[in-house]
Amino acid sequence: MRRPKITIVGSGNVGATTAHWAAVKELGEILLVDVVEGMPQGKALDLMEAAPVAGFDCRLKGSNAWEETAGSAVVVITAGKARKPGMSRDDLAEINAAIIRDVAQQVARYSPEAIIIVVTNPLDVMTYLAYKASGFPPQRVMGMSGILDSTRLRTFIALELNISFEDVTALVLGGHGDEMLPLLRYTYAGGIPVTQLIPPERLQEIAHRTRYGGSEIVALLKTGSAYYAPGAAVAEMLEAVLRDKRRILPVAAYLNGEYGERDVYAGVPAIIGRNGVEEVLEIQLTDEELAALRSSIRSVREALAKIV
């Protein structure tokens, strides 16, 4: 059976780790693309040589040529500059905008039916640029944000309660930045609302750590940003698309009236399947939560206005 082609643009830590998770899940044939000669080829070969030991069965290849990406089912864009200590995600906007526009145009040229998943920061802004530059329907362009933010919240809740990570579900909405909205009312441990298990003041501390989870890792690494959890989050999106799982996942999706917002990308719950964003789900929010979500989206618009 012919397997779908997954192209990952950028073979740095995030791109290579995404390839690792996708290979372990046997989601398709994987192509790493990068402007640095030898890097994608070397990492693809190294990872493929792990297949006999790790027990996965898919082919990996590296390339510096766009022509090799032709016919991709999904293209993951991780290319761009990573944050350094003291930098916000928005500080990367002008640096990465030109890269994203060029990549999106190449994707449209060689894989006109592909679905694009954007990982490059500032994520919501870059996803919008990829949508515009590709000319694709908005449903076929989305960003990895809410899954990563939600899994950080899930991790911190599990650690707080000393329970299995598997038993925690959570939802984080809004822009992938410091104004993201951890929805504690929609966070559960074994089906029990965490608001019944953790005192309110402690929950707020966990929410704050979630908002700055990426900055915490950047400060610790000093020379890079997170890649294990982002790569795993992308792999979950890839699986939902390529296996048409119709998962409900928080992703950066195009809003066309949902939550009172239009012509912007932001983290919201959506059904993800073969066609990309099959449906944006509009959940009930309190007035305070809706105000916080709109404030977060306003920050996305402000960052976008500086480069569009």
From TrEMBL:
Molecular functions per Gene Ontology: L-lactate dehydrogenase (NAD+) activity; L-malate dehydrogenase (NAD+) activity
Catalytic reactions on record: (S)-lactate + NAD(+) = pyruvate + NADH + H(+); (S)-malate + NAD(+) = oxaloacetate + NADH + H(+)
Family matches, as HAMAP family: Malate_dehydrog_3 (MF_00487)
Residue sites binding substrate per the record: 83, 89, 121, 152
The enzyme's E.C. designation: 1.1.1.37
PANTHER family: L-2-HYDROXYCARBOXYLATE DEHYDROGENASE (NAD(P)(+)), L-LACTATE DEHYDROGENASE
Name the UniProt record assigns to this protein: Malate dehydrogenase
Active-site residues annotated for this sequence: 176 (proton acceptor)
Keyword Oxidoreductase found: yes
Sorted UniProt keywords: NAD, Oxidoreductase, Tricarboxylic acid cycle
UniProt xrefs under SUPFAM superfamilies: LDH C-terminal domain-like (SSF56327), NAD(P)-binding Rossmann-fold domains (SSF51735)
Recorded family membership: Belongs to the LDH/MDH superfamily. MDH type 3 family. Belongs to the LDH/MDH superfamily. LDH family.
Top-level taxon of the source organism: Bacteria
Lactate/malate dehydrogenase C-terminal domain span: 148-306
Functional summary from the UniProt entry: Catalyzes the reversible oxidation of malate to oxaloacetate.
Binding positions (NAD(+)): 10-15, 34, 96, 119-121
Signal sequence coordinates: none
One of the GO biological process terms: lactate metabolic process
Start and end residues of each Lactate/malate dehydrogenase N-terminal domain: 5-143
